[in-house]
Amino acid sequence: MTGLRSPGATRDATTPGCTRATKRPLLPPPFPAVVIQLIQQMQDPDAGAADVGKLIELDPALTASLLRLVNSPFFGMRRQIAGVSEAVMVLGMSAVRRMVMSLAVAVPLRQAGVDAEFARIRWHHTVSCAALARRLIVDDPAAAELAFTAGLLHDIGQVDLLHRHGAAYVALHAEAGTGDVRPLEVQRFGQAHDVLGAELMESWGLPAAIADAARHHHAPPPIAGLSRVQQAVWLANRLAGTPEQAAQALPLAPDTLAPPAQAVAEARAEIDTLASLLNG
């Protein structure tokens, strides 16, 4: 990618424009490599359903999880779906890609040693943000899919902090309560999750639009200067928060996005299904 900052320098979360040295190397993604390939494939206008199917089939575990999900009561299939290519044919390329990415991104939160309740809460927030962000863009399917992916990865910095600090990071969230956790992240661990997540995704070669959505999902309003994908993730992050956070965000919703109430109503069933993926 062009225009990336050096992995050895980061922006301070509390002082815009301030940079400081990172004392650790950036880590590889904590989920199957197929996710990175699927996201990169999204940028190729010539990629077709067969290409998506072949890529997914390279990971047998994800393939098995996908087929269990496709054959679950949520989709109400009249017959058993036996393969990835058939799933793509029945459900569509975009839907299958979203499910596979969700299954893969859930992997690090299912690992032994991760606080189960903390993982459940964070995963529900993650998939809620993804499903809502996609539905906040209704007139541009490509941007809507990009918003889903950006929403799914917007808190990947938290996943990294959780895996490096374990119980100490869970305790930090408990201390912050419903407030902004980032000042405590900077104080205890040297970097806030929004900046960290963006830099991780840049180091993995993901599109700038996805990394920047993570970087700006806590940006102070107004958000007119953000791209539509960034706006969708910003708003979805708040709609997926506490009732108070959602209520405060409603007057800030830009006209460039779909009505938030409509997005919330349409996303409920998908959120419930995606949230269940944490269990396997």
Q: Mean pLDDT, nearest integer?
A: 89
Helix-strand string: EEHHHHHHHHHHHHHHH
What is the strand tally?
2
From the N-terminal CA to the C-terminal CA, the straight-line distance is 34 Å
Structural class: mainly alpha
Describe this structure in words.
With 280 residues, the protein is mostly helical. The chain folds into 2 domains: 26-105, no CATH class; 113-280, Hypothetical protein af1432 (Orthogonal Bundle), CATH 1.10.3210.10. The protein is 59% helix and 2% strand. It has a two-stranded antiparallel sheet with strand order 1-2. Helix 7 packs across helix 12 and helix 7 crosses helix 13 (228-239). The longest helix has 20 residues, at 116-135. It is globular, with a radius of gyration of 18 Å. The model is unreliable at 1-23 (pLDDT under 50).
Which descriptors apply to this entry?
mainly alpha; Hypothetical protein af1432; 2 strands; disordered N terminus; two-stranded antiparallel ribbon; single chain; 280 residues
Short description:
The protein is an all-alpha fold. It has 15 helices and two strands. It has helices at 34-42, 49-57, 60-70, 84-91, 93-105, 116-135, 141-153, 156-165, 167-176, 182-189, 193-203, 208-215, 228-239, 243-249, 260-275; strands at 9-11, 19-21.
Task: Set out the fold topology.
Elements: E1 9-11, E2 19-21, H1 34-42, H2 49-57, H3 60-70, H4 84-91, H5 93-105, H6 116-135, H7 141-153, H8 156-165, H9 167-176, H10 182-189, H11 193-203, H12 208-215, H13 228-239, H14 243-249, H15 260-275
Antiparallel strand pairs: 1-2
Helix pairs in contact: 2-4, 3-5, 4-5, 5-7, 6-7, 6-13, 6-15, 7-12, 7-13, 8-11, 11-12, 12-13
